Amino acid sequence: MINVLVADDELPAVEELAYLLGRDDRIGTIHRASSGSEALRALTSESVDAVFLDIHMPAVSGLDVARAIARSARKPAVVFVTADEDCALEAFELAAVDYLLKPIRAERLARSVSRISELLREGGGAVPEMITVDQGGTTRMIRRDDVTYVQAQGDYARLHTADASYLIRVPLADLEQQWADAGFIRTHRSYLVALKHVSSMKLAADRPSVSVAGASLPISRRHLPTVREKLEATRIRPQA
Fold this sequence. Notes:
Helices cover about 30% and strands about 30% of the residues. It is an alpha/beta fold. Helix 2 (about 35-45) runs parallel beside helix 3. About 30% of the residues are buried.
């Protein structure tokens, strides 16, 4: 069970997030704080595995709390919860596990809890790989492990996530080389797929395809042998 601390200077926001977290079977005790100072006190007196922090709290902000956590011996996972996208880069420089935008959606929160659970099982982890993208005149930071697949669009590539898509000026062939070690595989001249987001594959059909985040993408004859090889590598076999 994951014991969490929810900190926000607005009580309704605290209660709403606590309610949503309480519906997740993976969550244990939920501690509450209505200020950054109260959050710091709770962290010294309670056993906390993860902290959900509002960024803009008076006096001691969520970023201040995260900096204190970074200096401490015991480091619970940090998730920022805010209506402001502008602090995303600094948040991830502080090794935040996630960055949730208000209003919070239950399915998005569940993905955040999954990341925390995975991090706790591994006993810690590296700062997530971040990508700078432009959308509607706004520069944003997104996590590479949020990218489900990439689609070629000329000299550009469109990154698809569960929530949106982003166009970057990088050819798909370059991303194929740069992201190979991160679990991305070329399935077609127009598609690069994150294996961790694949839900199913049809390899024996006349038109082989792969299902990724609700999208059905083609697998070309040229790339089919490599896809088969990758799939076999993940198959569980009995011990000899």
